[in-house]
């Protein structure tokens, strides 16, 4: 999936499909090679039949997502980020996406 976002010419790229079974850890990667210093990385998900739900905003480093049993990590050069869901459940089945914002 290639997603053009509102942050001007910035682009992000994600794997087209990632699957796991219930309870098995999964990592979803996002590449944003054209990230600018002012950009914030946004991760969100969209459950079937629902609107987008913000998961987290990130600038650098790693942060726990306790209510989602996961962790969001940003590379030191900020050119990629990843969302790791340590114990996904069926209710977590969704489209997970990243974007950049000013």
From TrEMBL:
Superkingdom of this protein's organism: Eukaryota
GO BP: adaptive immune response
Tagged with keyword Hydrolase: no
Coiled-coil stretches: none
Annotated GO MF terms: peptide antigen binding
Name under which the protein is recorded: TVA4 protein
PROSITE patterns on file: IG_LIKE
Keywords recorded for this protein, A-Z: Adaptive immunity, Immunity, Immunoglobulin domain, Receptor, Signal, T cell receptor
Span of domain Ig-like: 1-102
GO CC annotations, alphabetized: T cell receptor complex
Keyword 4Fe-4S: no
């Amino acid at each position: 999936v290639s997603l053009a976002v509102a942050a001007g010419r910035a682009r992000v790229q994600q794997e087209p499909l990632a699957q796991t079974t219930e309870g098995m850890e999964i990592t979803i990667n996002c590449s944003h090679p054209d990230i600018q210093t002012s950009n914030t990385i946004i991760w969100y998900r969209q459950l079937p039949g629902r609107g987008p739900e913000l998961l987290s905003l990130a600038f650098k480093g790693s942060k726990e997502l306790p209510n989602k049993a996961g962790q969001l990590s940003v590379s030191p050069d900020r050119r990629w980020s990843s969302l790791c869901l340590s114990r996904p459940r069926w209710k977590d089945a969704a489209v997970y996406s990243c974007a950049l914002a000013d």
